[in-house]
Amino acid sequence: MSIKELFKSNIPRGMLILLAYVLYAIAETLNNYLIKFATDNLTKKAWTSAVMWLVIIAIMGLFTFFLLPLGTYLFNQQIQNYLHQIRTHMMKHYYGQKSVNVAEMANQLGNNLKILTDNYAKPWIDIWSTILRVILAITAILTLHWSIVIATILITIIVLLLPKILEKRLARASAIVAKTNSTFLNTISNWFSGLGELRRYQSKKTLKQAVKQKSQALADANITQGKISGEAQIINGIGNSIGQVGICFWCSILYFSQQITIGDWLTSLGFVSIIFNGLWQVITAITKIKSTAELRKQVATLVQPVKITNKRVIVDAVQSHNLVVTYANGEKLTYPDFEIKPGEKVLLTGDSGTGKSTLFKVLLNQIKPSAGSVMFKATNQQLIKPQNAQVGYIAQDASLFPTTIANNITMFNQQLNGKLKQVLQKVQLAPDLAKFPARANTVIDLDQPNLSGGQRQKVVLARAEIHETKFLLLDEATSAIDRQGTKQIISELLKTNATILMIAHNFSPELIAQFDRQIHLTTNSKGANNNDD
Question: How many domains would you assign to the chain?
Fold first, then answer.
């Protein structure tokens, strides 16, 4: 986030915002200056002239009250449009990343952008408005008596030096708040993703302690930031008060020495108040802006698109050689050499802990092997590394989106709508959809699920079927579907030209026989079952 980009996000509106605040500053200055004439006429008992000046002051005041809300409204529009652009760039960045921490992403898109709005964007408009008012106030004072300006400048220098005392501490406190909030969101995401299990085993106390600890850390960080911010305001307030009292004293001397009138005296004090209050606002705004330096660096990184340099290649075969996966604790899984040819239907079996799901993670480039290699083959026999291979994957826990069932299957490719009816029949989803009034146009509710586990799996199976995925990995993809439905779905899948590698338990001998062959894994490393399915 930068003030330059904020202004450029909508230049015509940006110009209008600046103009609104310029007119506001001019109107306020004139309004305060006219008090001189009203006061002097009152002291002379020139009632008609005094009333005339008071009426003009009232009219100018109404004009001022109109301009400030207008400028504020336009600036809020500018900020929200700019934040929308930032979020769009961030989403492109996250889309291109290999892995995304959802809690961290939520923190950046929500909390951190709010911090930047409050402590960076809004303070800049305060600075612009205040500087205009201060400059005009100083100009007005010059017309009254030059020495008031000199005194104001000397005191201003002292006031401007005061914020340096707490500037670094406040910046550190803001960075800690952002980091602590990210940790808190991660904790929420990690623990509440398994809320059902916690309820099942009555682990409320454990959940409460885990969240309470991180919540307290976040509260402490916010309290510390608030404390330092309060100290900064106290210091700035003391400087402001000393400055105003000092100028008031000097103006009184000038009045009693008959160098200025009573109207000049009142007007000078009004402008001095604008100057010192303005300085306080500018100092506070600058302190806030500097406290966001670290966050602005993060946002600058996140709005840069991640380039996906390697285009995914469609593959239909795979081979492995001397494949070994080593865990952080030193334990190893050693895999037999294998080759799966184009169009083969292979069942991956083995006891729990033999490394079936880990092998899938290697094939999907989620885990790097410590030794050996896995290479896919394209239709032209070209060898392709896992990170460059286009591989379909269906897990037990289906990934769905809050849109229609049809969109979840076609993945928003309208050209595939013509094949939808046929695919729904193949995966045995058509009878389920007949129960919904909107059929395939039923919107999936992720908050209060309106699809069963088996129906969700069928949707994802239909997704792979309709896109004619050439190489498909299935990890217990029919575990929530009844035996008869599984039999029919698997039979349809095995009729396709796709190359299939499937993990499954408790298949009947009849169903196993439909596969071309099995790759059976055995336990070959002590403790491997602690790291796999």
Answer: 2
Domain boundary among 273, 302, 331: 302
User: What residues make up the domain containing 297?
Assistant: 3-170+234-302
Among 481, 366, 491, 475, which residue's Cα sits nearest to residue 429? Answer: 481
Q: What is the pLDDT of residues 253-265, one digit of tens each?
A: 777 777 777 777 7
Is residue 225 a part of any domain in this protein?
no
pLDDT, tens digit, 9 for 90 and up, residues 224-261: 777 777 776 676 667 667 766 777 777 777 777 777 77
- Are 433 and 286 found together in one domain? no
What six digits make up the tokens of 519? 């790759």
Question: Of the candidates 328, 278, 274, which has an alpha carbon nearest to the alpha carbon of residue 137?
Answer: 274
Return d(Cα 280, Cα 161) in angstroms, integer: 11
- SS3 of 74-130: the string is HHHHHHHHHHHHHHHHHHHHHHHCCCCCHHHHHHHHHHHHHHHHHHHHHHHHHHHHH
CB 108, CB 178: distance < 8 Å:
no
| 287 in the same domain as 163 | yes
Cα–Cα dist 40/285, whole Å: 37
Residue 219 lies in a domain: no
- Considering 265, 283, 302, which residue would you say is the last residue of a domain? 302
Same domain for 118 and 81, yes or no, is yes
Distance CA 239, CA 236 (A): 5
Q: Running DSSP on this structure, what letter comes out for residue 530?
A: G
SS3 per-residue string spanning 172-202:
HHHHHHHHHHHHHHHHHHHHHCCHHHHHHCC
CATH of the domain at 150: 1.20.1560.10
| DSSP state for residue 147 in the 8-state scheme | H
Instruction: Report whether pLDDT(85) > 50.
Output: yes
* CA-based max dimension of the chain: 112
CA 492, 494, 495, 498 dihedral sign is positive
Question: Can you tell me the distance from the alpha carbon of 473 to that of 347, in angstroms, rounded to the nearest whole number?
Answer: 10
Query: Is 61 among the domain residues?
Result: yes
3-state helix vs strand vs coil in the chain, percent to 5: 65, 10, 25
Residues 298 and 317 in one domain: no
